């Protein structure tokens, strides 16, 4: 019997290496940002960003990325995937350079949004090129290697960010992207072949505009409400407006024959449950990581490198359990595995209610590991349910929707839980800052970073303010952790009510399934 002819590109594995470099820079940037929040907030050595501005530095990237993910995929099919990949990585590199030398929080926020535009072009392009250059028999192996490299980036990102901040200024966490981008551009031009879809889809310009406008307005109102209170029109007005715009987006997408987000898929309860569980768990997790960044570096006084090392158990658990969770799904079914994973996340988040200013380090490390293990067992069963609940030809679209909802869930988690953190902190510290001058009182009431800055100028009296700020922040952190746990519990209810007990008897088609499965796990 003669062996089958290999139809893949002769340099396919070298091309895969180039694509991994391209995506690595995007993933690294998002994982190093959390450890840099304190340095960015520093009014002397950073840009003096407030807590709400730091939330926007995270969300400006995430919202743009989520809104443009589908559009860049269609543009790549039309104009050429190599061309779009090059454009995306160049935009990302330029935006990284702008971010590194930003002089104000506003400049940083806009630069991060530009990074989101570039990042949204990179991810679908890399996956499409992999599908084009690899034979179907090798494609799953190639995408597995691609996903493994992404997992490695998640693991080393916080440590790399901490190392850079120990030795250089805060902008180095963005500047490190530039030489990687330059290498990536050269290698892409030399190694990667061009490809297009002979029957590309149409671009939903109106849908993209409505989705981004609605989400930005909603998030703006939530963040502003956390900073100034929700009784002002500047807070509830954008929230109401954002909800109305998103309702118009849904109505428009239902009538569109080329929707940027196929909302019709949500009519399927199993699909809705699977996607909702992904959104809810990332809502809870991203909000938690936001307040942990301040807790570790301000309340506990850890350096940026030490804070990054504290996150390694989370990444290690992901690397250990994620590859094994598919086997667990086959044995126990998606409902059981996903519910247990959500329960582990909920228990971990609830445990932060008892974390104080002197909690032993080993407790924090265990909590990070258990949360990572829980999240590693949410994505695979949810993705399997997405695949099995849709027709085979919709597998790729369904997973892309899942990835978009994941990004949106994370952005809303940072906004909602960050606003809760800000509001409770402001109320708790009110008495301690009542005797300060108006300007100093406003700065100290805004965030724990501001309070530390005021305390540094107050001489011996600053120690009392620092103690009050730490106590107020830990109390606010408990409220945010409780909110995270409640969201995770809602996720458990959704999973138990609607996720299927057993895996579907059929499997998705060979070509779109691996791409779609990994697309749901990255970004």
UniProtKB/TrEMBL annotation:
<feature type="transmembrane region" description="Helical">
    <location>
        <begin position="142"/>
        <end position="163"/>
    </location>
</feature>
<feature type="transmembrane region" description="Helical">
    <location>
        <begin position="84"/>
        <end position="103"/>
    </location>
</feature>
<keyword id="KW-1003">Cell membrane</keyword>
<dbReference type="InterPro" id="IPR036259">
    <property type="entry name" value="MFS_trans_sf"/>
</dbReference>
<feature type="transmembrane region" description="Helical">
    <location>
        <begin position="361"/>
        <end position="379"/>
    </location>
</feature>
<feature type="transmembrane region" description="Helical">
    <location>
        <begin position="169"/>
        <end position="191"/>
    </location>
</feature>
<protein>
    <submittedName>
        <fullName>MFS transporter</fullName>
    </submittedName>
</protein>
<feature type="transmembrane region" description="Helical">
    <location>
        <begin position="12"/>
        <end position="36"/>
    </location>
</feature>
<feature type="transmembrane region" description="Helical">
    <location>
        <begin position="56"/>
        <end position="75"/>
    </location>
</feature>
<feature type="domain" description="Major facilitator superfamily (MFS) profile">
    <location>
        <begin position="15"/>
        <end position="503"/>
    </location>
</feature>
<dbReference type="Pfam" id="PF07690">
    <property type="entry name" value="MFS_1"/>
</dbReference>
<keyword id="KW-0813">Transport</keyword>
<feature type="transmembrane region" description="Helical">
    <location>
        <begin position="235"/>
        <end position="252"/>
    </location>
</feature>
<dbReference type="InterPro" id="IPR011701">
    <property type="entry name" value="MFS"/>
</dbReference>
<dbReference type="InterPro" id="IPR004638">
    <property type="entry name" value="EmrB-like"/>
</dbReference>
<keyword id="KW-1133">Transmembrane helix</keyword>
<dbReference type="InterPro" id="IPR020846">
    <property type="entry name" value="MFS_dom"/>
</dbReference>
<keyword id="KW-0472">Membrane</keyword>
<feature type="transmembrane region" description="Helical">
    <location>
        <begin position="203"/>
        <end position="223"/>
    </location>
</feature>
<feature type="transmembrane region" description="Helical">
    <location>
        <begin position="273"/>
        <end position="296"/>
    </location>
</feature>
<feature type="transmembrane region" description="Helical">
    <location>
        <begin position="334"/>
        <end position="355"/>
    </location>
</feature>
<feature type="transmembrane region" description="Helical">
    <location>
        <begin position="109"/>
        <end position="130"/>
    </location>
</feature>
<feature type="transmembrane region" description="Helical">
    <location>
        <begin position="479"/>
        <end position="499"/>
    </location>
</feature>
<keyword id="KW-0812">Transmembrane</keyword>
């Amino acid at each position: 019997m003669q062996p089958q002819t290999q139809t893949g590109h002769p340099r396919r594995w070298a091309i895969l290496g180039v694509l991994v470099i391209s995506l690595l820079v995007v993933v690294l940037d998002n994982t190093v940002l959390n450890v840099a929040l304190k340095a960015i907030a520093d009014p002397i050595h950073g840009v003096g960003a407030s807590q709400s501005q730091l939330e926007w530095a995270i969300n400006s990237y995430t919202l743009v990325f989520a809104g443009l993910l589908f559009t860049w995929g269609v543009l790549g099919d039309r104009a050429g995937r190599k061309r779009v990949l090059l454009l995306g990585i160049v935009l990302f590199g330029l935006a990284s350079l702008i971010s590194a030398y930003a002089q104000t929080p506003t400049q940083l926020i806009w630069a991060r949004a530009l990074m989101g535009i570039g990042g949204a072009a990179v991810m679908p392009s890399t996956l499409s090129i992999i599908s084009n250059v690899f034979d179907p028999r090798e494609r799953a192996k190639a995408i597995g290697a691609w996903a493994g490299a992404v997992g490695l980036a998640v693991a080393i990102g916080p440590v790399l960010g901490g190392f850079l901040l120990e030795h250089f200024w805060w902008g180095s966490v963005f500047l490190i992207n530039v030489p990687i981008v330059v290498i990536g551009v050269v290698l892409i031009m030399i190694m990667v072949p061009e490809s297009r879809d002979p029957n590309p889809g149409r671009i939903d310009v109106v849908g993209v505009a409505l989705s981004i406008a609605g989400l930005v307005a909603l998030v703006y109102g939530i963040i502003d409400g956390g900073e100034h209170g929700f009784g002002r029109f500047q807070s509830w007005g954008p929230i109401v407006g954002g909800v109305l715009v998103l309702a118009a987006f849904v109505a428009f997408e239902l009538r569109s024959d080329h929707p940027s987000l196929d909302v019709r898929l949500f009519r399927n309860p199993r699909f809705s449950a699977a996607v909702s569980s992904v959104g809810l768990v990332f809502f809870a997790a991203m909000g938690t990581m936001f307040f942990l960044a301040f807790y570790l570096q301000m309340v506990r006084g850890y350096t940026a490198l030490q804070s990054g090392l504290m996150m390694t158990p989370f990444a290690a658990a992901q690397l250990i359990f994620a590859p094994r969770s598919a086997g667990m799904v086959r044995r126990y079914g998606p409902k059981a595995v996903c519910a247990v994973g959500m329960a582990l996340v909920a228990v971990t988040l609830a445990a932060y209610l008892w974390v104080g200013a002197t909690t032993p380090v080993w407790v924090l490390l265990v909590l990070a590991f258990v949360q990572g293990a829980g999240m590693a067992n949410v994505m695979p069963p949810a993705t399997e349910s997405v695949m099995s609940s849709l027709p085979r030809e919709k597998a790729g679209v369904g997973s892309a929707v899942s990835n978009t909802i994941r990004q949106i869930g994370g952005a809303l988690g940072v906004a909602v839980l960050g606003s809760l953190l800000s509001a409770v902190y402001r109320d708790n510290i009110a008495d301690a800052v009542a005797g300060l001058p108006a300007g100093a009182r406003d700065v100290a009431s805004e965030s724990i970073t501001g309070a530390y800055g005021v305390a540094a100028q107050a001489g011996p009296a600053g120690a009392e303010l620092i103690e009050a700020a730490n106590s107020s922040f830990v109390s606010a952190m408990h409220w945010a952790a409780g909110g995270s746990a409640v969201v995770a519990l809602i996720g458990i209810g959704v999973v138990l009510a609607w996720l299927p007990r057993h895996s579907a008897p059929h499997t998705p088609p060979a070509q779109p399934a691996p791409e779609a499965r990994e697309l749901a796990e990255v970004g």
